[in-house]
Write a structure and sequence with these properties.
The complex is a heterodimer of chains A (490) and B (102). Chain A is an alpha/beta fold. Chain A has a domain of 256 residues: Amidase signature (AS) domain (Amidase signature (AS) enzymes), CATH 3.90.1300. Chain A contains 16 helices and 11 strands. Chain A has an 11-stranded mixed sheet, sandwiched between helices. In chain A, helix 7 runs antiparallel to helix 16, helix 10 crosses helix 12 and helix 10 crosses helix 13. The N and C termini of chain A lie close together (11 Å). Chain B is mostly helical. Helices cover 34% and strands 4% of the residues of chain B. Chain B contains 4 helices and 2 strands. Chain B has a two-stranded antiparallel sheet with strand order 1-2. The chains are: A alpha/beta (490), B mainly alpha (102).
């Protein structure tokens, strides 16, 4: 079905002009999911009845001549840590099995108001804690470009579903790279907005000072359109920003002539970064040369505290997680273990309900926050975080945007990361953006010799998503994947 | 600097309200030790006079609190629907004091 790879804008246009009904498109999408997802494993729950009902209502509206939203009839998938009224939400964890939320997250309300058809909930590393979706407590999600490889994570289901044409676009969340890294691994566009750009109300909290919701899409223009829909101030999230939402879709055409693009030395020299795979490096070099040809000025900059970002992140994020996840205690919702007293109830419920990586992070966070250790770990990490942010502020006095690889390598094989620390080290290029609260975009910029997608990462000034999207559109046009589609699972 | 003893791991598990099986405690001791080893890089950083960054927004003034006005919220029955054991509008849990369940 060609409609499977229509862009968001094309899908909405086809429906608005009556070329296809929303119901027919939903039927085709659900049929494709039923076939392809058996092997792909992107979805945890497909809301067939809900999707059909929404489509039916949209068709009625169109026939009646009522106004349709910008996403009318567009099939969208949601990472399963975004709460959905009446649709099970697990965050990839056994502890939430059976929970059916009584409300929609703000981003879900906004998508529905724009006419989107929510087709289902996608797989993730439990509570977003992982970089491969291998830490889901339910199942494996495969990379549609190579079924023996991971799709990245933690928004691996959302990325794989978009790459394989099981939805027009999806939402993920990004705490340390969880949108951008799977986007890079699966050859799609992933945008982590500025902290506060998008409401976190109704997002299952992992690390509250780092989490952001953002789009995964097959084109930069689609990501811009989704960002427009989900952004904006929300009175229910005190950290959401009051700044007006620009027309991101109108900012794509400017090109890069005269733009200053910074290349942070520490991301390329192997110093703060470990080794960059040769194919990834070559793709970045081609991207850099192309941007220069297009009239951008490439400037080497320094972010000297980059080598400390990993340690700072893996203190701050687990510390916040250990606090946020205290709510899963078997009392108000979620699974409850049989126990003789209340402390026993908490310990057994959590011991049985959380997977190994979540337990590890809760333990790490509890260690860093406990009395007597707070100054040496959590406070120190927050001070280093301030230094990292300062580095970026300094760099952005010289340049408009920063360009780096999204990941040191392309998608790795299942089980390739032997220890937790090995897995953490793969996040090296993405997490400083979350620490500093900046927007980040991953755009495909080529394939490895093995045919695996490579992502270029753009980092911007706070609230300057428009410039990221503008540069991203040039990368997409000049060195992107074009019509190349994943061939392993389709 | 950061080899964890088995006792420390057990103490953290209690603080974290996690029941861990003996093999999980073993693995935790090894894994956390290796991760904490990596954090050593932070110890040498001079952060004299650097204020800890507690918020990711551009400034604390980015925080917008809404007016303190009561608004409709989830009905009690909706909010309690996922509770494992309830008695009317109350949530039933085991005794706080061990051995005191009636």
């Amino acid at each position: 079905m060609t409609a499977a790879f229509w862009t968001v804008a094309e899908t909405a246009r086809q429906i608005a002009t009556g070329q296809i009904t929303a119901s027919r498109l939903v039927d085709a999408t659900l049929a494709r999911i039923a076939t392809v997802d058996r092997e792909l494993g992107a979805f945890l729950d497909v809301d067939e009845a809900g999707a059909r009902a929404t489509a039916h209502e949209l068709d009625r509206k169109r026939t009646a001549g009522e106004p349709l939203g910008p996403l009318a009839g567009v099939p969208i998938a949601l990472k399963d840590n975004l709460v959905t009224k009446g649709i099970p939400t697990t965050a990839g964890s056994q502890i939430l099995v059976g929970w059916i939320p009584p409300y929609d997250a703000t981003v879900v309300e906004k998508l529905r108001a724009a006419g989107a058809v929510i087709v289902g909930k996608t797989n993730l590393d439990e509570f977003g804690m992982g970089s491969s979706t291998e830490r889901s407590s339910f199942k494996q999600t495969r990379n549609p470009w190579d079924a023996s490889r991971v799709p990245g994570g933690s928004s691996g289901g959302s990325a794989a579903a978009v790459a394989a044409g099981l939805c027009a676009a999806s939402l993920g969340t990004d705490t340390g790279g969880s949108i951008r890294q799977p986007a890079a691994f699966t050859g799609v566009v992933g945008l982590k907005p500025t902290y506060g750009r998008v409401s976190r109300w109704g997002v299952v909290a992992f690390a509250s000072s780092l989490d952001q919701v953002g789009p995964l899409a097959r084109t930069v223009a689609d990501a811009a359109l989704l960002l427009e829909v989900i952004s904006g101030h929300d009175p229910r999230d005190a950290t959401s920003l009051a700044a007006p939402v620009p027309r991101y879709t109108a900012a794509l055409a400017g090109g890069v002539a005269g733009l200053k693009v910074g290349l942070p030395r520490e991301f390329f020299d192997g110093h703060g970064s470990g080794t960059i795979d040769a194919d990834v490096r070559a793709a970045l070099d081609r991207t850099i040369a192309m941007l220069r040809d297009q009239g951008a000025e490439l400037v080497e900059v320094s972010l000297p505290h980059t080598p400390l970002a990993l340690a700072a992140y893996y203190i701050v994020a687990p510390a916040e997680a250990s606090s946020n996840l205290a709510r899963y205690d078997g009392v108000r919702y979620g699974k409850r273990a049989e126990a003789s007293d209340l402390l026993d109830l908490y310990r057994k419920t959590r011991g049985a309900g959380f997977g190994p990586e979540v337990k590890r992070r809760i333990m790490l966070g509890t260690y860093a926050l406990r009395s007597g250790y707070y100054d040496a770990y959590y406070k120190k990490a927050q001070q280093v975080r301030a230094l990292i942010k300062r580095d970026f502020e300094q760099a952005f006095t010289q340049v408009d945007v920063l360009l780096t690889p999204t990941t040191p390598t392309a998608a790795f094989r299942f089980g390739a990361k032997a220890t937790p620390l090995d897995m953490y080290l793969g996040d090296i290029f993405t997490l400083s953006c979350n620490l500093a609260g900046l927007p980040g975009l991953s755009v495909p910029c080529g394939l490895t010799s093995e045919g695996l997608p490579i992502g270029a990462q753009l980092l911007g000034k706070p609230l300057d998503e428009a410039t990221l999207l503008r540069v991203g559109a040039v990368i997409e046009r000049e060195v992107g994947l074009g019509d190349r589609r994943p061939g392993a699972i389709a | 600097m950061t080899t964890l003893t088995r006792n420390e791991v057990e103490e953290i598990a209690l603080l974290a309200r996690l029941h861990l099986e003996p093999d999980e405690l073993d693995r935790m001791q090894t894994d956390l030790g290796a991760i904490l080893e990596h954090f050593v890089t932070l110890a040498a950083v001079d952060v004299t006079g650097v204020a800890p960054m507690t918020h990711a927004g551009a400034a604390a003034t980015d925080m917008t609190l809404r007016a303190d006005v009561p608004e409709p919220s989830l009905p009690v029955d909706e909010a309690l629907r996922a509770v494992a054991r309830r008695d009317g509008d109350l949530i039933v849990v085991p005794s706080i004091i061990p051995g005191n369940n009636s």
